[in-house]
Amino acid sequence: MRVGILGSGLMGGKLGTIWARAGHEVVFSYARSEQKLKRLAREAQGNATAGTPSDAARGADALLLAVHWSRVDDVLKQAGDVSGKTIVSCSLPMTVDDSDLAIAHTSSGAEALAKKVPKARVVSAFGTAPSEVFFGVFEARRKKVRPSLVYCGDDAKSKKIAAELIRDVGFDPVDAGPLRIARYTEPFTLLIAQLAYEGDEGPELAYRFESDSVGRDSLARC
Ligand SMILES: NC(=O)c1ccc[n+]([C@@H]2O[C@H](COP(=O)([O-])OP(=O)(O)OC[C@H]3O[C@@H](n4cnc5c(N)ncnc54)[C@H](OP(=O)(O)O)[C@@H]3O)[C@@H](O)[C@H]2O)c1
């Protein structure tokens, strides 16, 4: 797949690197320095380049949206026409000072994003894992037991693409349902952040839903 990274920070930089190493074509975009994007592309050691958000969007099978909520409008404007594109978003709708969710309960960041780009297909994924865990999960991807990663969205084809990208990182994708379920996954992310950054075990934290006791197939896995 050709994957465009919109926001090449902690999340976008790491996920883009992993996808390049997993064999995808990756375009890193949107950082404050072009040097950083070029360094990421070089160090990814795969088929990766640095470009503008519009380069990242052009011909992309999937776009990862990984910017602070306050930068979403700007990066989307720079990306240009995203009609028909799959946008996998890990961006949380945090207030400017990062103290709380700016959207919650009756809507979610993912739904607000889908309203901004009604012709794109938004999938919410990756927000429920701290960036610090990604390389470890990728290195352990051949182990039998994988950590879970929930995702949700309204478009079946885009959810399939997101599930493949989740699997390529080394997680077991768990389909949580339609995009409105991001109302529950986004606050769950704050719990993960609390455990990762305020807990005793450090930020290399992942989770796994076990279904053995109630039957192996009771979780909706892709
Ligand atoms: N980090 C996590 O573990 C985590 C976990 C769950 C969800 N999330 C969510 O994922 C999203 C991304 O988080 P992150 O931690 O990856 O953020 P981040 O490290 O700050 O990355 C954001 C990217 O946007 C770029 N950027 C910011 N302002 C810009 C501007 N004015 N012009 C051009 N580029 C600009 C940054 O550039 P520079 O590279 O130059 O700084 C960086 O590459 C957020 O919505 C966050 O809530 C993060």
Please explain how this structure is put together.
- By secondary structure, this protein is α/β, with parallel strands linked by helices.
- 36% of the residues lie in helices and 17% in strands.
- Strand 4 (62-65), helix 4 (72-79) and strand 5 (86-89) form a beta-alpha-beta unit.
- The structure holds NADP nicotinamide-adenine-dinucleotide phosphate (NAP).
- NADP nicotinamide-adenine-dinucleotide phosphate binds next to helix 1.
Compose a concise summary of this entry.
With 222 residues, the protein is α/β, with parallel strands linked by helices. The chain has helices at 10-21, 34-43, 53-57, 72-79, 109-116, 134-139, 156-169, 182-198, and strands at 2-6, 25-29, 47-50, 62-65, 86-89, 121-125, 148-153, 172-175. It starts with a strand and ends in a 24-residue tail after the last helix.
Poorly predicted runs of 5 or more residues: none
Q: How many β strands by DSSP?
A: 8
**Basic shape:** globular
Q: Sketch the major β-sheet.
A: 8 strands, mixed
Count up the helices.
Answer: 8
How does the helix and strand content classify structurally?
A: alpha/beta
Helicity range: 25-40%
**Oligomeric status:** single chain
Order of helices and strands: EHEHEHEHEHEHEHEH
Rg, nearest Å = 16 Å
User: How are strands sequenced across the largest beta sheet?
Assistant: 3-2-1-4-5-6-7-8
**Mean pLDDT score:** 95
Bound small molecules, deduplicated:
NADP nicotinamide-adenine-dinucleotide phosphate
Give the CA-CA distance, first to last residue: 19 Å
Strand content: 15-25%
